[in-house]
Amino acid sequence: MQHQRLSRELAKISNSPPVGISVSSKDDKLNVLEAQIVGPDNTPYKNGIFKLEILIPEKYPFIPPSIKFTTKVYHPNIDDNGRICLDLIKMPPKGNWRPTIGLEGLLIAIRMLLETPNPEDPLMAEIAEEYRNMNSEFVKKAQSYTQKYAS
Question: Is the dihedral of CA 92, 60, 25, 108 positive or negative?
Fold first, then answer.
């Protein structure tokens, strides 16, 4: 079931990709995927190409995939190891993962997180503080990281 579902999801994404998002299997394995998210316009991440690694668990879609950025990102909800603080990739009761969300929904949510950080639920408290109180400084650093690591 997992193999069929993943094949369908990947086919849908490749035939009708969401804006700024692409996904492919790594080494022709369906349990390890690579995704790319283009930094949204009107953000410090604009024109950056951010790479992510997606590990699909055996019990997918009943358990969410593990997703992390392999590109360094200066963001309050993404840590130095690329881990992402997003409730959709956590199981209830702490998270909101549901089997109906799927890969496309997760990647769209991650791209939206780049567009609209959530400083109220940070992984990086100092960056969240900077985002809230010294936004122009945050924007400069995020743009610098984007140019250095995501181009």
Answer: negative
